[in-house]
Write a structure and sequence with these properties.
Layout (H helix, E strand, L loop, with lengths): L1 H16 L17 E5 L5 E8 L3 E7 L3 E6 L8 E7 L8 H7 L12 E11 L4 E10 L2 E16 L6 E12 L15 E12 L3
Antiparallel strand pairs: 1-4, 1-10, 2-3, 2-10, 4-5, 5-6, 6-7, 7-8, 8-9, 9-10
Organism: Novosphingobium panipatense
Keywords: Signal
Pfam family, one: YceI
Length: about 200
């Protein structure tokens, strides 16, 4: 009995300790499954970059985005993207600066708690790339912005078994166009936006 128990516990320990192995992600954009997708907030992130006094670049991140994507790789022009990002989550690893950024002098999170991007046009630019033009609403102002997106890969998430597609995207705005002009030009008006996003397919 002791030997059987020891053998059973040993087998269980191997199962528990076994690493989670992901399937090989597919980098062929044409093979992506068409359908409706929801943003995986836990594995998506928005980062902004400004030039600080002409001396160095400074970064901030905005976690907690939510959104949806309608995608058919065979007819990319019909794709629809709608993403909302809370601005109160801003993080620069400097707590004092984070508090300043959510104040009325900058993002004014109390009055304008989110920024939102809604696509209006998607144009394929390569086998794995596309320009996504849409309306960005930030700080109460809506203006057209184009994001240059790159498909990274798709596959089944080994943790939750959801079919997931991943993208990187980038774009540039002048923050003063949205009424956020504090310290311009000492802190650059030009603001680069970089995005990493994972979308999980809904339904079959």
């Amino acid at each position: 009995m002791k030997r059987i128990l020891a053998s059973t516990l040993g087998a269980l320990s191997l199962v528990v300790a076994a690493p989670i192995v992901a399937q090989q992600a597919n980098t062929n954009a044409a093979a992506v499954q068409a359908g409706q997708y929801t943003l995986d907030s836990a594995h998506s992130l928005v980062r902004f970059t400004v030039e600080h006094f002409g001396i160095n670049d400074f970064f901030g991140t905005l976690p907690g985005a939510k959104g949806s994507l309608t995608l058919d790789p065979a007819n990319l022009a019909t794709a629809k993207l709608d993403v909302t990002v809370p601005v109160a989550t801003v993080s620069t690893t400097n707590a004092k600066l984070d508090q300043e950024l959510v104040s009325a002098d900058w993002f004014d999170a109390a009055k304008y708690p989110t920024l939102r991007f809604v696509s209006t046009r998607v144009v394929r630019t390569g086998d794995r790339t596309a320009d996504i033009t849409g309306n960005l609403t930030f700080h109460g102002v809506t203006r057209p912005v184009t994001l240059r997106a790159t498909f990274k890969a798709a596959g089944v998430n080994p943790m939750n078994k959801a079919y997931t597609v991943g993208f990187d995207a980038s774009g540039v705005i002048n923050r003063s166009d949205f009424g956020v002009s504090k310290y311009v030009p000492a802190v650059s008006d030009r603001t680069r936006i970089d995005i990493t996003a994972a979308f999980e397919k809904q339904g079959k």
